[in-house]
Amino acid sequence: MIIKEGSRGTDVKELQRALKELGYNCGVADGIFGVGTRVQVEKFQEDNDLYPDGIVGSGTLSAMNPKLPDELKFQIDGEPDPEETFQKLSWTKVETDQIDGSQGYSYFRLRKDAAESYNALREDVLALGGVITSAGAKRSLTDAKPTSTRSIKSMHYTGLAFDLALDTMGNNPKKDRYVFVEA
């Protein structure tokens, strides 16, 4: 079994106590796996070279339990864990197109498998005379603070998203290189 954001109960309370013991303060051990607990689990996972997904399963427990005093070691009750992958996926630098007067970047990074798809798409776009711009992509999990323009659930953290440079999005027909019209 796994526990994750939204989980409730004794397993979560034991997890919260264990995190606090290890120096990851997720607040009161109330048995409710909320945002604070998820963020601390992700920090623990990052610090222990685990994939920081905020989900606690056998891999995270295997890293956590040896560091805990006997009275705080625990096992999650219930069904067996799903298969966990410990393979770290590599990031690849991909190029973008810069347009005179645009604030866009000349490159960004994506997860390797997404980069392959992006490069194929860009090749098709270029062959048709188009361009792909970027205002950024990869984000660090340590910067996962919500703002009015940034979601903590963004696919940017996993290397599966990038932003187009907004100043090339066809907002001003007199200035922009491309303008989108409804056909």
What's a quick, concise take on this entry?
The protein is mainly alpha-helical. Helix content is 26%, strand content 5%.
Which features does this protein show?
183 residues; mainly alpha; Muramoyl-pentapeptide Carboxypeptidase, domain 1; 2 domains; two-stranded antiparallel ribbon; 26% helix; elongated
Please render the helix and strand layout as text.
Elements: H1 10-21, H2 35-47, H3 58-64, E1 91-95, E2 107-111, H4 112-127
Antiparallel strand pairs: 1-2
The average pLDDT score comes to 81
Number of helices: 4
What oligomeric state do the depicted chains represent?
single chain
Q: Would you count the extended β strands for me? A: 2
Q: CA-to-CA gap between the ends?
A: 51 Å
Shape: elongated
Give the spatial strand order of the biggest sheet.
Answer: 1-2
What percentage of the residues does DSSP assign to strands (E)? Answer: 5-15%
Number of domains: 2
Main β-sheet description = 2 strands, antiparallel
Task: Calculate Rg over CA atoms.
Answer: 21 Å
* Low-pLDDT residue spans: none
The share of residues in helices is: 25-40%
Instruction: Give the ordered list of helices and strands.
Output: HHHEEH
Category by helix and strand content:
mainly alpha
Protein described:
It is a single chain. By secondary structure, the protein is mainly α. The chain has helices spanning 10-21, 35-47, 58-64, 112-127, and strands at residues 91-95, 107-111. It is 26% helix and 5% strand. It folds into 2 domains: 10-72, Muramoyl-pentapeptide Carboxypeptidase, domain 1; 91-168, no CATH class. The chain is built from 4 helices and 2 strands, in the order αααββα. The protein starts with 9 loop residues before the first helix and ends in a 56-residue tail after the last helix. The longest helix is centred in the middle third of the chain and has 16 residues, at 112-127. Strands 1-2 form a two-stranded antiparallel ribbon.
